[in-house]
Hints:
Blueprint: H1 5-8, H2 18-27, E1 29-33, E2 38-40, E3 48-54, E4 57-62, E5 68-74, E6 79-80, H3 83-86, E7 94-97, E8 101-107, H4 108-117, H5 122-145, H6 148-160, E9 165-167, H7 172-179, H8 183-196, E10 199-202, E11 205-208, H9 211-217
Antiparallel strand pairs: 1-8, 2-7, 3-6, 3-8, 4-5, 4-7, 9-11, 10-11
Helix pairs in contact: 6-7, 6-8, 6-9, 7-8
Amino acid sequence: MIDSSLIASADLFAGLSPEHLAPIAEAAHIRELRRGDVLFLEGDEPDDLYVVVEGRIAISTRSFDGRESVFALMEATDLFGEMPLFRPDGRSAGARALESSTVVVIPYSPVRALYQEHPEHLWRVVDMLATRLKSMDTALADSVFLDVTGRTAKRLLELAGPSDTFELPITQEELAGMVGASRERVNKAIASFVKLGWLEQRDRAYAITDREQLEIRSK
């Protein structure tokens, strides 16, 4: 049985009593991942959902010609892989580790049992799905209203968080997948930020030197 606090850290399970968490924690286990390890592929038969303990997990899809689009990065306390819990179907996307990571693997069966016995907890599911829909709406709006340079600025700001110095946790190819453009166009956008004095770059290390201008360009 794993430490139930690792499960309670996820929004979906936050606030559950120790009694309700116990069967889930008893069925769950920890999985250690190295960079590049695949948790599941698009179309795989699903059995589990996951909570990130540490590290970063990319959620992505691939086009018919093999191009990858990374549409979400999962970090500590984030939960993913839950959709087939409510609608049995193949995985709608793939998940792989971007760096050394630790995840909690939670089988669907004890979670389904919890909701069958205590349907009032399904309101947390509604809240989580509403948040996901809002994120997808934002991503769709970005793809319509922002050009590649604007989307690149927005992704860099998201990856930086509140810090002005950060290391890119993904490759330039993966960043291009998040932006939804070719690596060449994303690199050109970054080079323009450097030339304008908004950003400094050394390999995968970045320093934001004019956050205000980057934020303006990302809108």
